[in-house]
Amino acid sequence: MVGPSMTATFGITFDYRCPFARLVHNHVVTGLRDGADWDVTFLPFCLGQAHVEEGQTDIWDRPDDDSGLLALQVAISLRDRQPSAFLGFHLDLFEHRHNGGGSLRDESILSRFITANGGDAEAAFDDVRTGGPLKVVREEHSRYVASHSVWGTPTFLMDDKAVFVRLLDHAHGDATVARETVDRIIADIRWPILNEFKHTSLPM
Predict the structure, then answer these.
(1) CA nearest 98: which of 42, 20, 162, 29?
(2) Is the pTM of this model over 0.85?
(3) What residues contact residue 204 under an 8 Å CB cut-off, 6+ apart?
(4) Closest of 187, 146, 145 to residue 165, by C-alpha
(5) Quick one: how far is CA 181 from the chain centroid?
(6) φ/ψ (deg, to 5) at 40
(7) Rounded CA gap, 16 and 68, in Å?
(8) What is the pLDDT of residues 142-188, one digit of tens each?
(9) Which residues, other chains included, contact 134 with Cβ-Cβ below 8 Å and sequence gap of 6+?
(10) Residues 72, 73, 74, CA angle at the centre, nearest 5°?
(11) Quick one: three-class SS letters along the chain?
């Protein structure tokens, strides 16, 4: 057991295609909705760009080639311009993707999730069409790749530390589980002598 939620400021990367990001973000959002004392920045990370080979054109210059980049742009528009709709959209889109392999590039589907969470879908897509959210995704992704050597999702960023975290289950709506899970992760990140802790095989 870990203690009650402590004040913590951290960023956490996401790409809706990543099943492990879904699990970790479920804990984070569930805890936030329960009043956890965390100051969280949700950071877009484009897996498509991460897999661009040297000499190939960056995905930012051919965004239609990436199956997850439109969803990231919409999410960032909501995060920055319609924050009250972001958390619900964020969870809904992860569930849509990983409970049946739903599309992340269908505007009608994305619009439905925006509206269901009290957002203005037309405003979000108008914002995306300006190119602003794509610029933000590119800048933030590139910044913490350079500053913290981030290579995937979900990665927690706290001060000068960046830690990739892989969980095996989500919170199942249990706020206590969510808060204890994230607080345990935060405590481990803050533990100065811990560098790596990894099972050699999946625990049974």
Answers:
(1) 20
(2) yes
(3) none
(4) 187
(5) 16
(6) -110, 135
(7) 7
(8) 999 999 999 999 999 998 999 999 999 999 999 999 999 999 999 99
(9) 60, 63, 69, 73, 128
(10) 90
(11) CCCCCCCEEEEEEECCCCHHHHHHHHHHHHHHHCCCCEEEEEEECCHHHHCCCCCCCCHHHCHHHCCCHHHHHHHHHHHHHCHHHHHHHHHHHHHHHHCCCCCCCCHHHHHHHHHHCCCCHHHHHHHHHCCHHHHHHHHHHHHHHHHHCCCCCCEEEECCEEEECCCCCCCCCCHHHHHHHHHHHHHHHHCCCCCCCCCCCCCC
183: tokens are 């607080």
| Residue with the two structure tokens 């897999």 | 51
The token pair at 107 is 């505007």
Place of tokens 């990436």: 66
Token pair for residue 139? 């800048």
